[in-house]
C-alpha cells in the first residue's frame, strides 16, 4: 500500500510505515466520527469488510504458495508442523536418554517411541521435498532433529547393544542425513535457494495489487453512501480528535487503511 496517509500498504513492510497500533487507534477515532453523525453502521460495515478482505487475501496467498511449492511451502504447511514435531520429539528423547534427570532404564520405552516418531516424521519431510532447496527456516528445526537423534543414539550406544539399537542408529542417520541433504542442495542450487528464501516476499508482492484494488473498491463504496457534507464532517471530527490524521484521506480511509495495511500476519518478520 502507499506510504504516508495510506501507510502500511507497501509490500516490503518498510520502516517508514506507522505501527499497526497507531493505525488501529486512528481507525477507532474515525469510527467514533462516523457514529457522531449517525453513520455508525456504515463504518462498522467498512471495518468488517476490510478485515474479512485482509484475512481472505492472506488465505489466498498461502494457498498459492502451497499449490506452487507443496511440502516446501514455508508458511506452516504440513511439513513445517512435521519437522517441528520431529525436533521436539528428538530433543526430549535426547534429554531423557542422557540420564541426567531420569533413569534411562525406566524411560527406555518412551525414548524409543519418541525417537521412532522423530525419525519417521523427518523421513516423510525429506522424501516429500525430494532433494530440492528449502527455505532457510527449515534448517533450524532440522538441525535440532539431527543433534537430538544423534545424541539419543550416542547415549544409547554408550550403554551397549540392545534390540532397539538399530532403530536409534537409523533414526540418527535420517536426522543427520536430512540436515546434510538440505544444506548440500541449498549450496549446489543458489538460484533456487534464493527463490525459496524470498518466496513469502514475492508472493506478498504479487498479491499486493489485488489488496490495493480492494481498498479502492471499499473506499468507493463508503463514499457512495455519504453526502459531501457528511464526508467533510467526518474528516473534520477525525482531524479535531486526532490532529495527526491526514485531511487528504477521504472519510472511511483510516478504517480501510488500518484493516488492510497488515494483511500479512507476520510482515514484521519479512
Structural commentary:
This protein is mostly helical and 270 residues long. Helices cover 70% and strands 0% of the residues. It has ten helices and no strands. It has helices at residues 20-36, 40-69, 78-97, 108-129, 139-157, 165-188, 190-197, 199-225, 228-241, 253-261. The protein starts with 19 loop residues before the first helix and ends in a 9-residue tail after the last helix. Residues 1-16 have low confidence and may be disordered.
Overall shape: it is: elongated
Q: Decide which structural class fits the backbone.
A: mainly alpha
Helix content: over 70%
User: How many β-strand stretches?
Assistant: 0
Number of helices: 10
User: Into which percentage range does the β-strand content fall?
Assistant: under 5%
Topology order in helix (H) and strand (E) letters: HHHHHHHHHH
Mean pLDDT value? 88
Distance between the termini: 16 Å
Major sheet: none
Rg calc: 26 Å
Q: Runs with pLDDT <50, length 5+?
A: 1-16
Amino acid at each position: 500500500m502507499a506510504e504516508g496517509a495510506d501507510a502500511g500498504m507497501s509490500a516490503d513492510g518498510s520502516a517508514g510505515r506507522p505501527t499497526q497500533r497507531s493505525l488501529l487507534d486512528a481507525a477507532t477515532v474515525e469510527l467514533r466520527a462516523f457514529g457522531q453523525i449517525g453513520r455508525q453502521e456504515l463504518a462498522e460495515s467498512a471495518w468488517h469488510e476490510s478485515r474479512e478482505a485482509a484475512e481472505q487475501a492472506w488465505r489466498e496467498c498461502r494457498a498459492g504458495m502451497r499449490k506452487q511449492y507443496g511440502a516446501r511451502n514455508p508458511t506452516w504447511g504440513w511439513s513445517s508442523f512435521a519437522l517441528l514435531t520431529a525436533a521436539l520429539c528428538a530433543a526430549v528423547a535426547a534429554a531423557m536418554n542422557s540420564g541426567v534427570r531420569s533413569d534411562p532404564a525406566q524411560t527406555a520405552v518412551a525414548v524409543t517411541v519418541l525417537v521412532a516418531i522423530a525419525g519417521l516424521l523427518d523421513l516423510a519431510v525429506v522424501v516429500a521435498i525430494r532433494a530440492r532447496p528449502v527455505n532457510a527456516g527449515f534448517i533450524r528445526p532440522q538441525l535440532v532433529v539431527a543433534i537430538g537423534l544423534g545424541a539419543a543414539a550416542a547415549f544409547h550406544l554408550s550403554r551397549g547393544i540392545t534390540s532397539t539399537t538399530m532403530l536409534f542408529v537409523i533414526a540418527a542417520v535420517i536426522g543427520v542425513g536430512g540436515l546434510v541433504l538440505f544444506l548440500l542442495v541449498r549450496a549446489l542450487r543458489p538460484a533456487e535457494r534464493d527463490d525459496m528464501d524470498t518466496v513469502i516476499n514475492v508472493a506478498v508482492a504479487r498479491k499486493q495489487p489485488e489488496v490495493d484494488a480492494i481498498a479502492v473498491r471499499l473506499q468507493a463504496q463508503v463514499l457512495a453512501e455519504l453526502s459531501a457534507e457528511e464526508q467533510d464532517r467526518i474528516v473534520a471530527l477525525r482531524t479535531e480528535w486526532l490532529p495527526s490524521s491526514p485531511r487528504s484521506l477521504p472519510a472511511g480511509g483510516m478504517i480501510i487503511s488500518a484493516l488492510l495495511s497488515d494483511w500479512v500476519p507476520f510482515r514484521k518478520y519479512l
